[in-house]
C-alpha cells in the first residue's frame, strides 16, 4: 500500500473514532525511520467538544492543526529524563556504570536526606522495579511544593528492589530529585538547556499557560482541552496530572506539552547517530532484567511491545491523556498518536476502552499495510 492510500484509510479510522467520541481531537503521524521525508500526518477534530464553560459565551472551538499543543502525559518519561540520561552517557557527562550504582554513590546529599532510598539504583527506577508504589494522591494531603517533594521522596518501599515490576510515577519523581543533584540545577532548567542545545526547532515544554522555553509562547487557545473538573475547571494549557499540577506543572513523569511535529522531531533526533550512539538507544530500548534477574517486560524508561509472531519488539510509551508513541526498529517505521481522550472526564470506562481499541486498530493496520 502506498502512503496516499494508507493515509486515506487511517483518516477513515480517525473519523470513525471522532464519531464514536473517543476524543474531540486527534493528531496522527506514521513514517519511515529510514527516510524521514516519507511520512503521513493527519489532524482530525477540535480542541474540545463545542463551547466550554467558565467565560462569557464559553471558549470557542478550534480545529486540530499543526500548532495544536497536546498534554503528552507519560510520554514525558521518555522525551525528557530517559533522553537526557542517554545523551549524558553518550557525551561522557556520566558513565554507563551509573545505571548500576546505588544512589548514595551518585547522589549522596539526596540519599542522606532520604536514607530509605539510598540503596536504589537508576536501573531500578527506570525499569519500575524499585519497590516503590505506583501512585498516591499527594496533591490532596500536601500543603506546599516542599511538603510535596518531601512526602514523595519519603514514601516507603512496598517490596524489595528488583522483586517486582510496578509501574511507578513515584519512582520517576525520585529520579527527578537525583538528577537535579547530579546536574546541580532544577529539572526545568536542565530540560530548557537541553532543548536549546540539542532539540532545535522543537517546542516541547512545560507549563504553556505560564511560560515558554522559546521566544514565542503558545496561548491557552493553542492547547487542546483535557478535563473539565470541579476543582480546576476547564483544564487547558495546564497539566492534567494532579500531582504534577500541584507541584507547579513540572515533573519527570508528566507535564510536557507538544505538537505532533515536536514528537516526530524527537523520533528523528533520537534515531540520528550524530546525536546519540545507536548502541545506547538499542540498549535502553531492549528487554531489561531487574537486579534480581527478573524479566521486567520493559526497557530503561521505554515500554516494550512484542507485535508479531516473529517477536519483533517495538519501543515507546503510552500517556494517560490518550497519547502513544511506538518505534519499530526491525520494520523501520514509527507511529505517533496524540488525543485528548480524557475530555471532558477521565471517569469514563468506555472512553478508556475505546482509546485502547483505537491504538490497537491503528498499529495493527500500519503493521499489516505499510
**Spatial extent as radius of gyration:** 20 Å
CATH class of the domain at 80-189: Alpha Beta
**What is the fourth-level CATH superfamily of the domain at 80-189?**
DD-peptidase/beta-lactamase superfamily
User: Averaging pLDDT over every residue, what do you get?
Assistant: 91
Percentage of helical residues? 25-40%
Shape-level CATH architecture of the domain at 80-189: 3-Layer(aba) Sandwich
Main sheet characteristics: 6 strands, antiparallel
SS content category: alpha+beta
CATH fold naming of the domain at 80-189: Beta-lactamase
Sum up the overall morphology in one term.
globular
Helix tally? 13
The termini sit apart by 6 Å
List low-confidence stretches.
none
| Annotation, overall tally of beta strands | 11
Beta-strand residue fraction? 5-15%
H/E topology pattern: HEEEHHHHHHHHEEEHEHHEEEEH
* Major β-sheet strand ordering: 2-1-11-10-9-8
Short description:
With 370 residues, this protein is an alpha+beta fold. The protein is built from 13 helices and 11 strands.
Which keywords apply here?
single chain, 370 residues, alpha+beta, Beta-lactamase, 6-stranded antiparallel beta sheet, 3-stranded antiparallel beta sheet, 35% helix, 14% strand
Describe the 3D structure:
The chain has 370 residues and is α+β, with helices and mostly antiparallel strands. It has a domain at 80-189: Beta-lactamase (3-Layer(aba) Sandwich), CATH 3.40.710.10. It contains 13 helices and 11 strands. It has helices spanning 3-19, 76-91, 103-106, 108-113, 122-126, 138-141, 145-153, 169-183, 187-197, 242-246, 260-270, 278-284, 349-369, and strands spanning 25-32, 39-45, 70-71, 205-206, 228-229, 233-234, 256-258, 303-306, 313-319, 323-328, 333-339. Strands 2-1-11-10-9-8 form a 6-stranded antiparallel sheet, with helices on both faces. Strands 3-7-4 form a 3-stranded antiparallel sheet. It has a two-stranded antiparallel sheet with strand order 5-6. Helix 1 packs antiparallel against helix 13 (349-369). The longest helix has 21 residues, at 349-369. The N and C termini lie close together (6 Å). The mean pLDDT is 91.
Amino acid at each position: 500500500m502506498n502512503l496516499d492510500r494508507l493515509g486515506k484509510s487511517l483518516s477513515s479510522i480517525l473519523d470513525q473514532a471522532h464519531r464514536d467520541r473517543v476524543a474531540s481531537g486527534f493528531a496522527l503521524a506514521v513514517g519511515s525511520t529510514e527516510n524521514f521525508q516519507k511520512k503521513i500526518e493527519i489532524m482530525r477534530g477540535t480542541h474540545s467538544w463545542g463551547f466550554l464553560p467558565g467565560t462569557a459565551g464559553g471558549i470557542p472551538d478550534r480545529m486540530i492543526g499543526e500548532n495544536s499543543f497536546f498534554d503528552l502525559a507519560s510520554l514525558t518519561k521518555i522525551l525528557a529524563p530517559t533522553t537526557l540520561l542517554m545523551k549524558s552517557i553518550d557525551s561522557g557527562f556520566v558513565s554507563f556504570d551509573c545505571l548500576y550504582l546505588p544512589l548514595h554513590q551518585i547522589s549522596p546529599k539526596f540519599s542522606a536526606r532520604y536514607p530509605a532510598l539510598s540503596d536504589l539504583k537508576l536501573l531500578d527506577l527506570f525499569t519500575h522495579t524499585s519497590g516503590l508504589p505506583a501512585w498516591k494522591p499527594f496533591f490532596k494531603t500536601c500543603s506546599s511544593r516542599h511538603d510535596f517533594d518531601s512526602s514523595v521522596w519519603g514514601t516507603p518501599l512496598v517490596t524489595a528492589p528488583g522483586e517486582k515490576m510496578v509501574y511507578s510515577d513515584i519512582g520517576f519523581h525520585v529520579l527527578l530529585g537525583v538528577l537535579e543533584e547530579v546536574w546541580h540545577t532544577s529539572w526545568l532548567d536542565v530540560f530548557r538547556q537541553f532543548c536549546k542545545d540539542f532539540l532545535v526547532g522543537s517546542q516541547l515544554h512545560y507549563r504553556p499557560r505560564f511560560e515558554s522555553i522559546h521566544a514565542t509562547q503558545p496561548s491557552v487557545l493553542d492547547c487542546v482541552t483535557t478535563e473539565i473538573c470541579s476543582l480546576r475547571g476547564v483544564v487547558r494549557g495546564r497539566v492534567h496530572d494532579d500531582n504534577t499540577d500541584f507541584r507547579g506543572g513540572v515533573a519527570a513523569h508528566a507535564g510536557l506539552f507538544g505538537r505532533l511535529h515536536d514528537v516526530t522531531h524527537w523520533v528523528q533526533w533520537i534515531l540520528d547517530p550524530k546525536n546519540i550512539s545507536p548502541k545506547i538507544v538499542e540498549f535502553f530500548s531492549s528487554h531489561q532484567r531487574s537486579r534480581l534477574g527478573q524479566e521486567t517486560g520493559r526497557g530503561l524508561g521505554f515500554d516494550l511491545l512484542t507485535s508479531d509472531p516473529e517477536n519483533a519488539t517495538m519501543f515507546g510509551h503510552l500517556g494517560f491523556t490518550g497519547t502513544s508513541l511506538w518505534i519499530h526498529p526491525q520494520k523501520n517505521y514509527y507511529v505517533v498518536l496524540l488525543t485528548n481522550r480524557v475530555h471532558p472526564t477521565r471517569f469514563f470506562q468506555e472512553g478508556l476502552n475505546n482509546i485502547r481499541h483505537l491504538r490497537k486498530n491503528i498499529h495493527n493496520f500500519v503493521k499489516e499495510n505499510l
